[in-house]
Amino acid sequence: MDITVDQRSVIVFDLDDTLYNEITYLQSAYREIAKKIDPKKWRQLFATMFSLYRCSKNVFDFLAQEYNCDKDELLSTYRNHKPEIALFHGALPLLKNIREKSGKIGLITDGRSQTQRAKLQALGIQDLFDIIIISEEFGSEKPDIRNYLAIAEAFPDHTYCYIADNIRKDFIAPNQLGWETICLLDNGLNIHHSAHLYMTPKHLPSKFVTSLTELRVV
Fold first, then answer.
1. Tens digit of pLDDT for each residue in 13-31?
2. Distance, CA of 8 to CA of 80 (rounded, Å)
């Protein structure tokens, strides 16, 4: 799929499950926590924690009860650890190709400032964006249209394209604004997996891709 990019283009991305799989952030945090709690048998503890998560159990309640851990400290480690995560195949070439065509690159992501910026740093892409909108810093979350209007106000009289994954909330506002919208399909590992509940015109993107490698900058 071709994306036309020039100096009047703004290509905006979501972060979690769009540029990398968010589940790998959770796994990274769980490893960090497991190593702190039981350095000798951390792999077994990690396996238990991840299994509990996949069974929709409260992992922190389990750790607090079985290991006498403080849940606030566990949550702090989860949110503030240095993540071990990696970009999706094709993400970095796509970002660089947009840059080479003189396009602007934006990010709209929900989450805590420190957490989301730690992810960007771990992925090595924080300096590739011309504008970054993080919900905690900005004061509102998707699908609030203000998060998207901030992009348009920063770069007026441009064309806009939003690439994201969450059909429930990602495309409502950019659809209203007339942006091009592209959904990266769930690869089976996405945190949010309720897309079937939102197959309505206001939620759906204009296009779908199965991989970022399908997007070609022209």
1. 999 999 999 999 999 999 9
2. 37
